[in-house]
Specification:
Layout (H helix, E strand, L loop, with lengths): L4 E8 L5 H9 L7 E5 L19 E3 L5 E4 L4 H13 L8 E5 L6 H10 L1 H4 L2 E11 L3 H7 L1 H8 L3 E5 L6 H14 L4 E4 L6 H4 L14 H9 L10 E8 L5 H15 L3 E9 L6 E7 L2 E2 L3 E3 L9 E8 L3 H7 L20
Parallel strand pairs: 1-5, 1-6, 2-4, 2-5, 6-7, 7-8
Antiparallel strand pairs: 3-4, 9-14, 10-11, 10-14, 11-12, 11-13
Helix pairs in contact: 5-6
Length: 341
């Protein structure tokens, strides 16, 4: 089986600088052979990069890059790109960047990228990147639910238009974003200057930073009253013991049944007691996706860790679900929160 191509999901509210960031990335020789998927060509300024007319929904760009719009659905577009690349109908590409509309809810897109076989057989989600307008993000995240969710689920946050903002404004934005998405890596950008850092591949092949010990402790400290937006919180837990497959399945079931749409995104790394395997898990709202088996622990800390980004969830409610992880092998995973009391 050929290696799966990494996908970078680029999101951000209207006017937050996604186009400038993407254009700067595409002009860099280090990001040649990139496929870009957008909703409509008219929504992104790629005209100066087009070198051939579009054919069958694909435009060829400089340096071997491709650009296409979503045809019927995202998973069909990704599958079509893969099969046409294999048949030699398109130039080879090494990565895919998906740019959402400014009003997009990232949750359905994430579930497609993490759980649809037409996608996961050939691609892997690498990072969620969200742009945040230094001049307007504080207002946008208070007034628009979409902006809030885009920021909350991001692995990397790129603060744009920093050249037009005062140092005091940037400091306020950093505090705001640190509250809404404390585990995300923060990059300051001026006129697209943060593009190369924004699309840099994570060191371990997935976004481990949110699960790093220092991030975990910092997030745990942020679970108290939030003076900016107490509805969005990052809950982080350290697991000292390995868990069984049954315990993991039971916990995922309980969390989905208990939190539902209030679970915006969840990531975790843990050891499976049954086999000694180390796995990376991801969930978005009501869906958890198959665990990714890792060759070994990616860092020196061999404790399990969970990070859950939620809306309107108190820490004690989520902490109650952790008892499911201690269930023994063979336990029926179809349990409720009441069964753990």
């Amino acid at each position: 089986m050929t290696a799966r191509r990494p996908i970078f999901l680029l999101t951000g509210f209207l006017g937050s600088g996604k186009t400038s960031l993407l254009n700067r990335m595409l002009r860099s020789p280090g990001f040649a052979h990139t496929a870009v998927i957008v909703n409509e060509f008219g929504e992104i300024g790629l005209d100066h990069l087009i070198v051939e007319a579009s054919r069958d929904n694909v435009v060829l760009l400089e340096d071997g890059c491709l650009c296409c719009s979503i045809s019927e659905s995202l998973h069909e577009t990704l599958a079509d790109l893969h099969h046409r690349r294999v048949r030699g109908e398109l130039p080879p590409f090494e990565r895919v960047v998906i740019e959402t509309t400014g009003l997009a809810d990232p949750a359905p897109i994430l579930n497609t990228l993490l759980g649809h076989r037409l996608v996961t057989d050939h691609y892997r989600l690498e990072l969620v990147i969200a742009t945040a307008d230094a001049l307007h993000v504080e207002t946008q995240t208070r007034e628009h639910r979409e902006a809030l969710k885009q920021i909350a689920v991001a692995d990397r946050l790129v603060v744009t238009k920093c050249d037009a903002a005062t140092p005091e404004r940037i400091a306020a934005v950093r505090r705001r974003l640190g509250t809404l998405s404390p585990a995300a890596e923060l990059i300051l950008s001026q006129e697209g200057s943060g593009a190369l850092d924004a699309f840099r591949a994570p060191e371990h092949g997935f976004a481990l930073r949110a699960l790093a010990p220092e991030a975990t402790h910092a997030n745990a400290g942020a679970q108290g009253e939030d003076r900016h937006d107490h509805r969005i919180r990052a809950h982080c837990f350290v697991l000292d013991a390995a868990v069984s497959w049954s315990g993991l399945a039971a916990w995922e079931h309980v969390v989905v049944e208990t939190l539902g749409e209030r679970l915006l995104r969840c990531k975790g790394i843990m050891e499976i007691a049954d086999s000694g395997e180390v796995v990376f898990i991801q969930g978005v709202q009501r869906m958890f996706h198959p665990p990714q088996r890792l060759a070994a622990w990616p860092d020196a800390d061999h404790r399990g860790r969970l990070v859950c980004i939620t809306r309107d969830v108190e820490e004690r409610e989520l902490r109650r679900t952790l008892g499911a992880l201690a269930l023994a092998s063979g336990t029926d995973p179809k349990i409720s929160l009441a069964d753990l009391a």
